Amino acid sequence: MLSRFAAVVCRSHRRLFLLSTAGIQTMQTAVVRCVPGEPKLTISFCLDGSHKHMLRDQDEPVGKVLTRIGHNLTKNQGKKKKKKQRDEEPSDAAQPVSEVTLLFGEETVEESVLNSEAWRDGAVLCVGAVRYTVLRNTPTFTTAELPRSLMAGFPVCPKLQLEFGNLEDCEFTWFKETSFVPSNEDIGCRLRLSCLPKDRTRNGLVKELQSESAIEAGPGTCTFDTRHLFTQQQTQWPELRVVSYNILADAYAQTELSKMVLYPYCAPYALELDYRINLIRKELSGYNADLICLQEVDKGVFEDSLTPAMDAFGFDGVFRMKEKQHEGLATFYRRSRFRFLSSHDVVLSEALGSDPLHVDLLQKLSSKPDLKEKILQRSTSLQVSIFQDLLQPERSLCVANTHLYFHPTGGNVRLVQMGVALTHLDHVISSVSPGAALVFCGDFNSTPHSGVFELLTHSSITQSHSDWLSSGPDHHCPMDLASPFPPLLSACGTPPYTNYVGGFKGCLDYIYIQPDHMEVAQVIPLPSHEEVTTYEALPSVSHPSDHISLVCDLLWSSQNKQ
């Protein structure tokens, strides 16, 4: 027997989750999808125990459809009769066609009326003695799916897409089996969800979902649990909370290299996406952030797993796929805090090769054609988003998100990439949103001793820096680089490491800010070394990535206004 819950467990601007077993009465219905501009319409209903889905021309007379329905019913009835009377001689006499009519306001719709006009909302389809209420373009879930992996203590966020309605108007009823955030008492149970699609005036047909698997036990203490104690509340003006996190793309976690060489210490099930995404969703939701910049985000993960979850937590997001890759960059922002104004993403190699802004840098590389070609082949992207602070509309942010070239000997490549990125950011701010504060997040694959770190924090780097020789003498192309920005500040400092795997540990991830625009109010402590190494290294059963997220609270400077 299903248990009843009365509490509202999650309510956001976009979703309403209700725990209740209050049923919704159903009636015989015929659902019609008829969209202007499309040549066909569909008519779906249950006829004599069989589901019918008819595809018809919108400009066809309705009489032809009604005749077809009558013939189908007669044919079905004839088959049933023959099945029961197999020993009797079959009759050659034609079966009478069942009477089928379409009514609107108790008046019969003329058979010559076109389908597009005849199938109106509220009409009644009469098939013999059975009456169907016609629902035209009723709110309908085109996608409604539950996650495959469910764990106690981790939020469950279905993937939902709605046509002819609004998600904020819909009702979602969780049956126990379980609740929205399963507890240990629910281990072994399956989850059922009743979805009622709605707009402001109409209800659609209920969609019932059931989980494929039962709820499993969670991993126990996770590396982010203690960190969540510092982020239990959302920030208040003038503060805002920023997260930067390389979440480890599934495309990389499932390779033989990852399983056998990079992460041999990690339990195989803990590398599976279904397992890791539970940890990622819970970790991100517990930070109560305002801005979240993610790297190594698989396109499918963004669309199917992160977007539904972040939407339920009050976030919208934008995604930038890396060229020739299966993963990219994602930036999520809290809807109640920021308004998304515009996007100015670039592929750094394409910008270098074609944008006049970088002609001088490209010319300097021409002396080393092999290095130039190597840089131009990279798919590294820079995601750039402009936001308006809704609490102080006169203030805006330029949020940059990137994942620089990964190779250990690629310091010179990363320097050139950063030179392109900084010039592009300066151009975007000056031409699109003058005075906007820059927040630059990402996996820079650069330690605090690197040329990239020096360029960002000192505004310049000389041709004598060792990174120009990182790829060997054949690729040595020394040059002086200058940043168009005053020295930036690493908001989370330089922790001992933000990436910890079996063969390497180091600080590669940063959140850079402009000190004259923002100050650091709080840095959320990283997990202790004991927590990180409980299962030897990262990722592990208690941590979903080989990187550690950076989380900090920033404070708008009282001096800076646009």
From TrEMBL:
Q: Which GO terms describe its biological process?
A: mRNA processing; nuclear-transcribed mRNA catabolic process, deadenylation-dependent decay
Domain Endonuclease/exonuclease/phosphatase, first and last residues per copy: 244-547
Checking Pfam families in the record gives:
Exo_endo_phos, PDE12-like_N
Q: What is this protein called?
A: 2',5'-phosphodiesterase 12
Q: Which GO terms describe its molecular function?
A: metal ion binding; poly(A)-specific ribonuclease activity
Name the segments for region: Disordered.
73-97
| Organism of derivation | Mugilogobius chulae (yellowstripe goby)
Gene Ontology CC annotation, any one: mitochondrial matrix
